[in-house]
Amino acid sequence: MSSLTSGSSRKRIYGCYTVIGFISSGTYGRVYKAQGKNGQVGQFAIKKFKPDKEGEIGYTGISQSAIREMALCTELTHPNVVHTVEIILEDKCIYIVFEYAEHDLLQIVHHHTQSNRHAIPARTIKSIMYQLLQGLLYLHRNWVMHRDLKPANIMVTSNGEVKIGDLGLARLFSKPLNTLFTGDKVVVTIWYRAPELLLGSRHYTPAVDLWAVGCIFAELLSLRPIFKGEEAKMDNKKSVPFQRNQMQKIVEIIGLPQKENWPLLTSMPEYSQLSSLSSGIHRVSTPQGLEKWYWQTLQQFKYPSSPPSMTPGSDGLSLLRGLLDYDPTKRLTAEQALKHQYFLSDGEKPAEDCFEGSGMEYPLRRVSQEDNDIRSSSLPGTKRSGLPDDSFGRPAKRLKEG
């Protein structure tokens, strides 16, 4: 992997890559698809970071998110984490070059919603979950918390390899100098945000990533976010509001959390807000609400009752419960989840190719010629909640890939 260089030896983006088109934009950068040249073989995704501006002239430097992502990406190597090829500095901008993946989970879910809501095959879901948890276990064992897991950030190659991407909000948690809340007051896209975060916890653990994995699992099953709330924005004083609507969406399915099941609940800064939620919901935390949601989802998509390879079954419900436990200390860890009976029920290890045996053909990732110039000065801001800018609702000129 190359380092940042200077002078005549410095690499140039257009000297190493031919930019094919624009893929997506995020909070801190824009992503482009490129073809390698001059010794670089294959296709790549290039993420461009621009420096933060101060006024019309001065620059304050590269964002904290970009610095973190660069530092982490260069140290991480795992089949289920997106591989970083190199980092290039050019004209006050930083470019991180990643391996290219033809799909992401958001695109796969969307494809199924557009095909008469045909269920994602149970075998495919099991492989996706297994690979996702393997990548997450690697991150957590190396003291990295992702803090923004969602379908749009989970890449899938044409060979069915699942890879965790976008480490822009990731954080080392081994020896923090301050609480994680001090550095980033808002983490995780709202629909995938764990209850301890919604209740204002200043100290949290990698369990927030496992809650997000539970939400992703539910979304793969139902083809829609399980807890689709509306985000309350910060006020002018930048104080973090209680996310009432999002918390209510969780409570409507799982029920109100109880201190008997979550001893530290009453110490949460927003604990008093729970009593103000609507009275038409379950008044106690109960597994029956999630169980009802789960079996109705499987019935809706006509999953067969057997064999195990054809249905998520009762083992799938058990895994989902373990991932969506209110108490983060009881929530399954990545290691525990990988040993769950759900992955062992048909007597063999989940497929390394999540597309194996599915018979499904998914469209390639959307690539447009809008804003195709990677050296363009424009960098419109985007939000981290809901769907990203490349989320299928926007008409765009398609490029033929292949």
TrEMBL record:
SMART domains xrefs: S_TKc (SM00220)
**What are its E.C. numbers?**
2.7.11.22, 2.7.11.23
Q: Which UniProt keywords apply?
A: Activator, ATP-binding, Kinase, Magnesium, Metal-binding, Nucleotide-binding, Nucleus, Repressor, Serine/threonine-protein kinase, Transcription, Transcription regulation, Transferase
CDD domains attached to this UniProt entry: STKc_CDK8_like
Gene3D superfamilies in the record: Phosphorylase Kinase, domain 1, Transferase(Phosphotransferase) domain 1
InterPro entries membership: CDK, Kinase-like_dom_sf, Prot_kinase_dom, Ser/Thr_kinase_AS
Q: Where in the cell is it found?
A: Nucleus
> Which GO cellular component terms, listed alphabetically, does the Swiss-Prot or TrEMBL entry include?
mediator complex
- Keyword rRNA processing part of the UniProt annotation: no
Question: Spans of biased composition, class Basic and acidic residues?
Answer: 363-374
Keyword field contains Phosphoprotein: no
GO MF annotation terms:
ATP binding; cyclin-dependent protein serine/threonine kinase activity; metal ion binding; RNA polymerase II CTD heptapeptide repeat kinase activity
Co-factor requirement: Mg(2+)
Q: What class of enzyme is it?
A: transferase
Its recorded reaction(s) are:
L-seryl-[protein] + ATP = O-phospho-L-seryl-[protein] + ADP + H(+); L-threonyl-[protein] + ATP = O-phospho-L-threonyl-[protein] + ADP + H(+); [DNA-directed RNA polymerase] + ATP = phospho-[DNA-directed RNA polymerase] + ADP + H(+)
Q: Which Pfam families match?
A: Pkinase
Question: Region labeled Disordered — which residues?
Answer: 354-402
Q: Can you state the subunit structure given in the record?
A: Component of the SRB8-11 complex, a regulatory module of the Mediator complex.
Q: Which family does it belong to?
A: Belongs to the protein kinase superfamily. CMGC Ser/Thr protein kinase family. CDC2/CDKX subfamily.
Q: What is this protein called?
A: Serine/threonine-protein kinase SSN3
Query: Origin organism of this chain?
Result: Tothia fuscella
